[in-house]
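Hi there,

I know you've been waiting on this one. I reran it after we fixed the sequence typo, so this is the corrected version. Both the input and the resulting structure follow.
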Amino acid sequence: MDNLEIIAFGFQRSIPEIIAWSMGITLAIIMLRRGGKKPEILLLLGCILFLLASLSSLIITSLIQWGHVFDISAVGYGLIIALTTGLFSLVGFICLAWGFWTRFRKRGVSPP
């Protein structure tokens, strides 16, 4: 396989994920324009961070496949991919979970 074929395959593999998070971003923007508060802002941030995670993974893998830009071993590249994707995904998940928790928690209900 040629380097361009490998990059194209990686891009084709991540298209559904990019489309899904882009739809989440547009949904969150619509909700914010209709008077959304903190949960909708957290939904928007979470979707943006997950989109950044998939795009950063795609870009870093493309750089690796295109040619070794820096003189780093395979372990170094794996660590870079894991840290960037993992950090964006973790913070995005925290934003999404916090947003859903603030949106759907019951307020003022005393325990039985």
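Quick highlight: Residues 3-33 form the longest helix (31 residues).

Best,
R. S.
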